[in-house]
Write a structure and sequence with these properties.
The protein is of the alpha/beta class. The chain folds into 2 domains: about 150 residues, Alanine racemase (TIM Barrel, Alpha-Beta Barrel); about 100 residues, Lyase, Ornithine Decarboxylase, Chain A, domain 1. The protein has 11 helices and 15 strands. The strands form 2 sheets. Strands 2, 3, 4, 5, 6, 7, 8, 9 and 10 form a 9-stranded parallel beta sheet that branches. Strands 1, 11, 12, 13, 14 and 15 form a 6-stranded mixed beta sheet that branches. Helix 5 crosses helix 6, helix 7 runs parallel beside helix 8 and helix 10 crosses helix 11. The protein is elongated, with a radius of gyration of 23 Å.
Length: about 325
C-alpha cells in the first residue's frame, strides 16, 4: 500500500533558523516530537552551524539524537521520572531541565551510580503552571543543586501568552529576579524564556527556544518572512466513473460523474469529516475525490498546515505532528 509522502525542505528550515539567529544571541532549536513531524535527526544535522543546542521532550528523544550523531547540547524539557531515565540522561550526555525536588533526588542518585556530574537548566514557574520552581524558591533550589554537585548551566521559564504585553512584563519581572538569584551562584548560566512568539515580540535574554518558527509557521496565525518547510502528498489508487448515487459509505449528495480514490484516510491522521479534497467522509485508508486522475499520480493534499488546522478547529502544532506521522519523508537539501 503506497504511503503518504512528506516532502520537507531543509533549505527552508535553515533559512528560518537564520532569520531567528538575527533576533537572539543564541538559538536553541526545538526538535521535540520528531521536530514537529519533520524528522528530528535530519533537522538537527541541517542546523549544525546555526543552533547552539537542541531541545527535546524526553530522554528517549535525546538519546536518539545522540545515536544519530548529534554532538551539540541537548536539553530534555520534561523532567526525568525514574532513576533509569536519569542514568540514560547522564550516559548520553544530555542536559536535564529540573523544576521540582523529586527529579532532583532521582538525578542525584543516578549521579552517585554513574559518577557523572549532572548538567542542568533550572526551570522557574512564572505563570505557565506546568513545570518549574516558584520564582521565590529559585535561590534555595540552586543552592541545593550546588551542594549536590550539579552543574547548573541555565535558568529558564516560558511565556504563557507572549502576545499579551502586560502578562509578558509580569512574567519578565518574576523571571529576572529568579534568574539573578541563580546567576549569583552560577554566574555563567544562560537565561532563556522566549519561544517563537516571545522572540518576535523583541523579548530575549541569552537564548531563545525556537520551535514552530523553524518550520515556517507563527503562533496566533501571524505572518512573517518565513518559509513553509513541508508539503504532504497522497497517491491516486483508483479512478472510475460513478455508477450509482452512492459514494463511499452511502454518501449521495449529487452525481460527480468521474471520481478518483486517494490512498489516504483517517487512519493516517486526517480528520474523517470536513476534508476539502474529499467527497463525503473519509474512509480509514481511502478518500474519494471528484474528477478524473491517473492511477499512481501524486497529489498535494496539504501545503498549508495552518489553513488545514483552522478548517478543523485545531492548532497548527497538532496538524504538523499528526498528519505526517505515517508518511515517508523526502528531503530537499
Amino acid at each position: 500500500m503506497q504511503p503518504l509522502l512528506a516532502e520537507i525542505s531543509l533549505r527552508a528550515i535553515r533559512k528560518n533558523a537564520g532569520y531567528f539567529c538575527k533576533l537572539t544571541r543564541s538559538l536553541i532549536a526545538v526538535v521535540k516530537d520528531d521536530a514537529y513531524g519533520h524528522g528530528a535527526a535530519e533537522v538537527a544535522h541541517s542546523l549544525h552551524n546555526l543552533a547552539s543546542s537542541f531541545a527535546v521532550a524526553t530522554v528517549e528523544e535525546g538519546a536518539s539524537l545522540r545515536i544519530a550523531g548529534v554532538q551539540e547540547d541537548i536539553l530534555v524539557l520534561t523532567p526525568p521520572m525514574t532513576e533509569e531515565e536519569c542514568v540514560r540522561l547522564l550516559s548520553y550526555g544530555l542536559v536535564a531541565c529540573l523544576g521540582s525536588d523529586p527529579p532532583v533526588r532521582l538525578l542525584a542518585r543516578a549521579a552517585e551510580l554513574t559518577g557523572i556530574t549532572p548538567r542542568v537548566h533550572l526551570a522557574v514557574n512564572t505563570g505557565m503552571n506546568r513545570y518549574g520552581y516558584p520564582a521565590p524558591q529559585a535561590a534555595s533550589s540552586a543552592r541545593r543543586m550546588k551542594r549536590l554537585g550539579f552543574s547548573v548551566e541555565g535558568v529558564f521559564s516560558h511565556y504563557f501568552a507572549a502576545e499579551d504585553e502586560k502578562a509578558r512584563r509580569g512574567q519578565d519581572l518574576l523571571f529576572s529576579r529568579a534568574a539573578a538569584d541563580v546567576k549569583a551562584l552560577f554566574p555563567d548560566c544562560i537565561c532563556h524564556i522566549a519561544a517563537t512568539e516571545g522572540t518576535l515580540q523583541g523579548e530575549g535574554y541569552d537564548a531563545a527556544r525556537i520551535g514552530l518558527g523553524l518550520y515556517g509557521y507563527l503562533p496566533q496565525g501571524g505572518s512573517g518572512p518565513l518559509h513553509r518547510a513541508m508539503r504532504l502528498y497522497a497517491y491516486v489508487s483508483n479512478s472510475c466513473r460513478q455508477t450509482g448515487e452512492g459514494l463511499g459509505y452511502a454518501f449521495s449528495p449529487q452525481n460527480f460523474g468521474q471520481v478518483h480514490t486517494l490512498r489516504m484516510g483517517y487512519g493516517d491522521g486526517f480528520f474523517r469529516e470536513g476534508e476539502e479534497m474529499a467527497v463525503g467522509r473519509l474512509c480509514m485508508d481511502a478518500t474519494l475525490s471528484a474528477g478524473a486522475a491517473g492511477f499512481g499520480k501524486r497529489v498535494c493534499v496539504v501545503s498549508d498546515f495552518e489553513a488545514y488546522a483552522r478548517a478543523h478547529g485545531t492548532s497548527v502544532y497538532e496538524a504538523l505532528v499528526r498528519l505526517p506521522s505515517k508518511a515517508v519523508r523526502k528531503y530537499i537539501l
